[in-house]
Amino acid sequence: MAAKAPAPGKANKEGFELFLERVKQGKDAMWNKEELLTAMHWQKQVTALIIGIVCGVLPLTGLNGFLTFAIAQGLCTVIFYRGVLRIDEEQHGGVAEVLVEGFPTFSAVFVLVWVLAYNVAHVPLSATIV
């Protein structure tokens, strides 16, 4: 069965473009499950990037950095899901599924940015040259 073509003047939006459009629509946005997971994916990527920079600059290391990330990411996801998008939890299965969706991807972004930010902010250039 062929996919339904979008209405004239409306293109299918994907990825970050879909995320931005839905955030602008706020509580009036109509979501299907795939669109919701895409929007939450991009929210988590951006949040992981910001938390990674903050943890690297502060300088948090070890378990303190990971705990800060887990708590901040969880809070940001719940706030975004309930406050910004105003999702009907009964229709979409609640926030629990959204919290764990894409964990390896956004965790990798956090660790990469955390290490880079920490090294840029706290490791002297002379220490890296042997």
Description of the structure:
Helix content is 72%, strand content 0%. By secondary structure, the protein is mostly helical. The protein has a domain at 41-121. Helix 1 (15-25) crosses helix 2, helix 2 runs antiparallel to helix 3 and helix 2 runs parallel beside helix 6 (103-122). The protein is elongated. It starts with 14 loop residues before the first helix and ends with a helix.
Question: What's the story with the biggest beta sheet?
Answer: none
Q: DSSP strand (E) fraction? A: under 5%
Mean pLDDT: 81
Separation, N- and C-terminal Cα atoms: 62 Å
The helix/strand order is: HHHHHHH
The unreliable regions are 1-11
**How many E strands?**
0
Given helix and strand content, the structural type is mainly alpha
Helix content: over 70%
Number of helices: 7
Radius of gyration equals 18 Å
Shape: elongated
Keywords: Endoplasmic reticulum, Membrane, Transmembrane, Transmembrane helix
Main location: endoplasmic reticulum
Subcellular location: Endoplasmic reticulum membrane
Family: Belongs to the EMC6 family.
Question: How would you sum up this structure in a few lines?
Answer:
This protein has 130 residues and is mainly alpha-helical. The protein has a domain at 41-121. Helices cover 72% and strands 0% of the residues.
